[in-house]
Design goal:
This protein is of the alpha/beta class. It contains eleven helices and eight strands. It has an eight-stranded mixed beta sheet with strand order 1-2-4-3-5-6-7-8, with helices on both faces.
Length: about 300
């Protein structure tokens, strides 16, 4: 088991492929563990001649947890709405530096980075605050933090904010309920989804960490003005059927980052089922290939 350290925070990570190849760092979304980047998907990037790194964000999986106490989401939302500084344990900036700590532990100076959902927000933050560490950035089904774009439908928002459950069956049922609302409609494979959800629960079920990640997103605010100054080559992807983060969030991201390209994936929701792996791998590797590999 490999762990990187960002101060007192331990970040669990795994690697695939030849370390002499260009590095591709994969960043997860809200409450998501690194195993959501399935081994078979990572191996597709390896076959495209990349050294692949997946890791658990802080507060989920096997990385450092910040306690069992459930944060007060309503209080943070009130502070943000009032324009006040919200008191939260960490922000997206700290989560971005966790990913860079993984690269440091591996001795990698620069890498291609791809983040999905909250992971897209994290890699955007990397590009803003640590551009010299990035070869390229790919932001998938994410947004800029602006309140006028990238919003969930009422049904999706209500389910996202439903209090979490602690039992295995309830966790699996909640996962399925969410994907019925915001997942890719033509790719709902209950057997696959039940197996993946059970594996995630057995590996680490930590509901308060997911909520702390949510308030980190809320408290970090909009990145739009900072993104206007990003010079990292950027690809933005979004699913046309996403009801959790509307595709307007992806379009805004591509609009404000100079030179960014935008790809709308028809029929994809707020997930990344195997039916889309080949398309995503092709788009990411074609984007990365435009930048000369590091020696």
């Amino acid at each position: 088991m490999a762990f990187a350290h960002n101060g007192d925070v331990e970040i669990y990570y795994e690697t695939f492929g030849d370390r002499e190849r260009p590095a591709l760092l994969l960043v997860n979304g809200l409450g998501s563990q690194c195993i959501n980047y399935r081994v078979e998907w990572c191996e597709r990037f390896v076959a495209a001649r990349y050294f692949v790194i997946r890791y658990d964000n802080r507060d989920v999986g096997l990385s450092t947890k910040f306690g069992d106490e459930m944060p007060d989401v309503a209080a943070v939302a009130h502070s943000v709405a009032a324009g006040d500084r919200a008191e939260v344990p960490y922000m997206l900036s700290e989560m971005a530096s966790d990913g860079l700590a993984v690269l440091d532990d591996l001795g990698i100076e620069r890498a291609h980075v791809m983040g999905v959902s909250m992971g897209g927000m994290i890699v955007q933050t990397m590009a803003i605050e640590h551009p010299a560490r990035l070869l390229t950035m790919t932001s998938v089904m994410s947004t800029t933090g602006d309140p006028d774009v990238g919003q969930a439908t009422e049904e999706a928002r209500r389910l996202l904010l439903t209090p979490p459950v602690s039992d295995r069956d309830g966790y699996i049922a909640g996962t399925l309920a969410g994907l019925r609302i915001w997942g890719s409609p033509a790719c709902f494979d209950e057997e696959r989804l039940v197996a993946n959800a059970g594996e995630a629960f057995d590996r680490s079920n930590f509901a308060s960490g997911r909520v702390r990640q949510l308030i980190a997103v809320m408290a970090s605010g909009s990145r739009t003005e900072a993104l206007r100054n990003v010079n990292v080559p950027t690809l933005v992807m979004h699913g046309s059927a996403d009801t959790l983060i509307d595709s307007s969030g992806g379009r805004r991201t591509a609009e404000v980052i100079p030179g960014a390209s935008f790809e709308l994936l028809e029929g994809m929701g707020h997930d990344y089922p195997p039916q889309y792996w080949e398309q995503i791998v092709d788009l990411v590797t074609a984007h990365a290939a435009q930048v000369p590999a590091e020696p």
